[in-house]
Amino acid sequence: MIRYARFESPLGPVLAIADEGGITHIDFVGAKYERRIEPEWIEDPRASALAACGRQLAEYFAGTRTGFDLPLAPHGSDFQQCVWREIARIPYGETISYGELAKRAGAPGQARAAGAATGRNPVGIVIPCHRIVGADGSLTGYAGGLERKRGLLELEGALQKSLV
Question: Residue ranges of the domains in the chain?
């Protein structure tokens, strides 16, 4: 059974989707790869994983949470899963380049492949793909839009660091 909930954030509405395994998607409404709600899904913001997601996102956006403790169940290829695991290890308030991400994921020299996997991250914010920047620290590629990426990095105090 797939359940979903919508949450408000300072950067726009967020859609979270969960199945029996946990949270499968967290996306800004209107993002490039946003999942469309299917008719058979149930809107249930009180489902335990979704309720926890809503609470933790609210705390994150309030500046009182720097990490998440949610049951995640993102679906992707082995390479995508590897990249997403490495993204999840980037500390709050820090950024790395796509090249560094590729290296950490065991694919040195494959920055474009790491970037493609990053762009398909289905659990945005919690798997913080907004913390990946260009080699020169520039803000590049974010499925939720560059203004949201900028907003997330500003919230974390990482924007200035990434542009230095």
Answer: 3-61, 78-163
